[in-house]
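Record passed on here:
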Amino acid sequence: MTDLNAFLEPGMIVRHPSEREWGLGQVQSVIDGRVTVNFREIGKVVIDSSRVALVPVFDAE
């Protein structure tokens, strides 16, 4: 299994690559290939890192 989000840390801001309407999200935790993200528009979502590579956002407004 490849962890596509191994570089993420709690507090980082990300986007889901195919769910732009979710808005920006803040990483809450990264544990055993699962990333919990609190998205502005839909709340907390657990992402499987072997299936989705989240996009880091460095210029969040």
